[in-house]
Amino acid sequence: QVQLLESGGGLVQPGGSLRLSCAVSGSIFRTNVMGWYRQAPGKQRAMVATITRGGTTDYADSVKGRFTISRDNAKNTVYLQMNSLKPEETAVYYCNVQGLTATMMPGNYWGQGTQVTVSS
Hints:
mainly beta; single chain; seven-stranded mixed sheet; elongated
């Protein structure tokens, strides 16, 4: 089995910063694309940022210039640095990993989600 452990969510004031982390463990041979998605109440889950194993990144237009995604391949961990947070970015943030299992099967995995609340 593959496990994703997210951390770093919480309550922050508008304009503040948070850093999310997602560590992958278990029967994972190689992580390929890693990313962060978010789902606000009453809305669909949406991509925030993704990063390939080689470091190519993609961001939702709304977060460009404020959020930075990075990864540590040796630790199978992906990070999301979020700056200048806005109240409308309050959501559950989910880590997503696409990779190969120890038996060389492709897999797509989700974390349990971490709540980010932006409020004064």
